[in-house]
Amino acid sequence: MVVGNMHSYSQVISVFNQCFKNDLSTELVRGGHEPIYIPSSQAYPWNRVVFAYGYFSSALHEVSHWCIAGSERRKLLDFGYWYNPDGRTPKQQEEFASVEVKPQALEWILSQSAHYKFRVSLDNLHGAADESAASTAIFKNKIHAQVQQYLLQGLPKRAKMFSDALIAKYRPNEPLDLSEFNQEEI
Q1: Residue 5's pLDDT band (cuts 50, 70, 90)
Q2: pTM for this one?
Q3: Structural domain tally of the chain?
Q4: pLDDT tens digit string along 64-112?
């Protein structure tokens, strides 16, 4: 996978906004330290998927959350999700992992769609010391199983639209194949 100049944040913004800004009144926006989803308001007519710093992978991750969120959740700030910051307890980390399987599976699919390296994230650098290789492997297994399910049974509609647009931009005439998703590489 390529990581570099061909994957600029402005490109992913352009692809996303071409897909969704007019039809779903949603735009992808480069933000600062913390990503967030901001629904439209009287003051601003578009929903905003805000990703961190201009990182390509952050954009794909935040879009993955947006692709999963239902219409009611898309009316709520940050989809109404709770978030415990870095430094979670083992129980909090287990809860985090359980809700991150689907978005990270979609992020992996979107990353492959853009020929971009996906890295699984436990997002808990300062958490409990007992986060073992075994728990990481279990998390990776769940993500891999979800990727297989998505590719065999179909992606959510918005995820499919965005994946197809990324494929057209970054790997035209090269559709995704299940064999590309090797969990040892994440």
Answers
A1: low
A2: 0.91
A3: 1
A4: 999 999 999 999 999 998 766 666 677 877 787 888 999 999 999 999 9
- Domain assignment of residue 39, yes or no: yes
Q: 132: how many CB neighbours lie within 10 A of its CB? A: 9
The verdict on residue 52 lying in a domain is yes
**Gap between the Cα atoms of 103 and 110, Å rounded:** 10
Of 49, 57, 77, the C-alpha closest to 158 is 49
Where in the sequence is the domain holding 14, given as residue range(s)? 9-185
What DSSP letter does each residue of 17-80 carry, written as one string? HHHHHHHH-EEEEE-SSS-EEE---SS--SEEEEESTT-HHHHHHHHHHHHH--TTGGGSGGGG
| Domain contains 162 | yes
- For residue 128 the two structure tokens come to 């409990």
